[in-house]
Amino acid sequence: MKIFKEVILTIIAFSLYISSAQAACDFIINIGDKKTKLVEKIAEPIPMFPGQFMLPVQSTELCPHDNLDMDIAVEYIFLEDDAAIRLAAIRMLVLNDGKNTLSNKLTLMNYAKKVYGDFDTGQNPGIYNNFNVWEKSQSIVIYKRLLDAEDMIVEEIYISNKKYDEKLGKFYYDLEMNELKEDENTN
Questions:
Q1: I need a labelling partner for 72 at 20 to 30 A (CA). Which of 93, 124, 144, 187 fits?
Q2: What's the pTM value of the predicted model, to 2 decimals?
Q3: Kind of pairing, strands 139-147 and 72-81?
């Protein structure tokens, strides 16, 4: 009887371990990968700027076991790199209504804590107005929950690695400098 109980407890513990291991979203491709596999499974990314592409997907499609809401979007951000289009970052964005309903449920915050690690949100996580960064080896994950000027909560998880985060930063910097030069030329 004692052996039977130990076997049952082992099976239950293993089941809980497996279900928690499946808790993270399946993003299909990794940072730096070509778009090919994602195009086969979902769709072709759409051009945003010359050299940058984006593909929005509902989180429930990629994270069926995470109890995420349909109003949490996953954005794949691609850059043209060495004549290939490669994944530079993934953003998980809360699409709040005018009352911050989804952010007030703490859905994305709880997902971030469960998948990437706990962080201090104070005594009342509902008023958390900050960000947290996880850096492991070359990967970068940032959870951000900030109140904007219109009292809307801007909440997201940003996922990249050091190489592509730097490339994305340079891309946006160059884009801004080109716009600045165009503005100066028109004045």
A1: 124
A2: 0.85
A3: unpaired
